[in-house]
Specification:
Largest sheet: 8 strands, mixed
CATH superfamily of the largest domain: Metal-dependent hydrolases
Distance between the termini: 58 Å
Number of domains: 2
Oligomer: single chain
Radius of gyration: 22 Å
Helix content: 25-40%
Bound molecules: fe (ii) ion
CATH class of the largest domain: Alpha Beta
Number of helices: 14
Number of strands: 16
Shape: globular
Length: 428
């Protein structure tokens, strides 16, 4: 064996598990593996998981926060306008440099697969060319999947249709769309029909920015699911955001969810992004804008969480740690039941991997030896603490390592000794 991790706790609750790695694959996974290895690491009591996966990101825009100015209203529409102003000034080198900087952050967080949308309504397709280069340069570290995303509208932008085809011809993996940004509801629905037809024709998957609005009558997910079934694309189509479902009438949703199940829609929520962007036209009460995660999970749909943005025109925060998205989802969706929190951990690991159709993902014999060791005792504590990633392993090779935090993170409450404790000790 090349490497053995001993004493792991897995996200499903199994503990005392040894994981043996050979030739970049998981060769054995059980308690008490007898074989020896070139390197052995004691991970007793530590949570060990397959890598984190971000199924919804915008790598072309990342790390542009403040350029050309800040989004002061905080709305999605100001974000789109800012991005439109910034695009002409983006050079190939700056796209690549920012993307590589971000990927460094991602690796440090154990985030080893990312689905990034890339804007195809830039006349030069500069972002597409840059991210195709990045996909190649980082492939030994991160699986980067690219979605052709017509930010200014597939039909609304005069170059939307033509550049979608060009981007796919250049090698972009997935077809994207933005129906709620088309001129009319009818054009939004028409864009869904045409993009699904294109996916069927080219044999590609689909991932739509779908109904990212507080308008309860934004129902493009209905057309997306119906077209998915009509064209036999079940399981290969993702609905990202689905924010309007938060505001929809319950009766309508009771009809919609069975249709989504029939289409096996991959649900991708973006909890941090939508808590920030949605409800901006409300006074009080203020809607949360995260889709109905609890109900969609309960219905058996595959639900995953993405970050959407890290320091760009749409969101000023986020760090490359998808556990932040899980943490926000627990709060925004009131998913505080023990099993619900564990489901939120799955939403940033195995569910996201399924949404992206990643091959060889998972902690099972025969899977890729892509493994993350956290300074946490279980999945719930990982969401609570978002702790150091002690080891990040890719194809059996350690690609990032962090020292354990000195404070005793595994205990509820505070470290053993603090300034506070010393200064408030009772006088002798
Ligand atoms: Fe997005």
């Amino acid at each position: 064996m090349d490497l053995i991790l001993r004493g792991a706790t897995l996200a499903d609750g199994r503990s005392g598990i040894d994981i043996a790695v050979k030739d970049g694959k998981i060769a054995a996974l059980e308690a008490g593996i007898g074989a020896a290895a070139g390197r052995e690491i004691d991970v007793t009591g530590r949570l060990v998981t397959p890598p984190f996966v971000d199924p919804h990101f915008h790598m072309d825009g990342t790390l542009t926060y403040g350029y050309p100015r800040y989004n002061e209203s905080g709305t999605l529409l100001e974000g789109i306008a800012l991005w439109r102003d910034l695009k002409p000034s983006l050079s190939h080198d700056w796209y690549v440099e920012r993307a590589l900087e971000y990927c460094d952050w991602a690796v440090g967080h154990g985030l080893l697969a990312i689905r990034s949308h890339v804007d195809t309504t830039d006349p030069t397709l500069g972002g597409v060319a840059a991210l195709l280069e990045v996909r190649e340069r980082i492939k030994d570290y991160i699986d980067l999947q690219l979605v052709a995303f017509p930010q200014d509208g597939y039909l609304r932008s005069p170059i939307g249709v033509e550049n979608m085809a060009k981007a796919l011809d250049m090698g972009v993996d997935v077809i994207g769309g933005i129906p709620h940004f088309e001129r009319t509801m009818e054009e939004g629905a028409e864009s869904m029909r045409r993009l699904c037809a294109l996916a069927a024709e080219r044999g590609l998957r689909v991932d739509i920015h779908c109904d990212e609005t507080d308008d309860p009558l934004s129902r493009h997910i209905e057309t997306l699911a119906a077209e998915t079934v009509r064209l036999g694309l079940e399981g290969r189509v993702a609905g990202s955001h689905l924010s309007s479902m938060h505001s929809m009438d319950d009766y309508y949703v009771s009809k919609l969810i069975p249709l989504m199940i029939e289409a096996d829609i991959q649900v991708i929520a973006n909890p941090t992004a939508n808590m920030l962007l949605m409800g901006r036209h409300d006074s009080y009460p203020k809607r949360r804008g995260m889709t109905r995660v609890k109900e969609l999970m309960a219905a058996g749909l595959n639900v995953s969480f993405g970050q959407d943005s890290v320091m760009d025109a749409f969101g000023s925060l986020n760090t490359g740690d998808v556990l932040d998205a899980a943490h926000m989802a627990v709060h925004a969706g009131q998913l505080s039941g023990r099993d619900e929190m564990i489901a939120c951990f799955r939403a940033v690991t195995e569910n996201s991997a399924r949404a992206m159709d990643l091959e060889g993902y998972g902690l099972e014999v025969g899977c890729n030896a892509d493994i993350v060791v956290l300074q946490a005792t279980d999945a719930v504590e990982a969401i609570r603490l978002r702790p150091p990633r002690l080891y990040v392993i890719r194809r059996g090779r350690i690609i990032a390592e962090s020292p354990a935090h000195e404070a005793r993170l595994d205990l509820p409450g505070r470290p053993e000794t603090t300034d506070f404790a010393r200064h408030t000790a009772a006088p002798k």
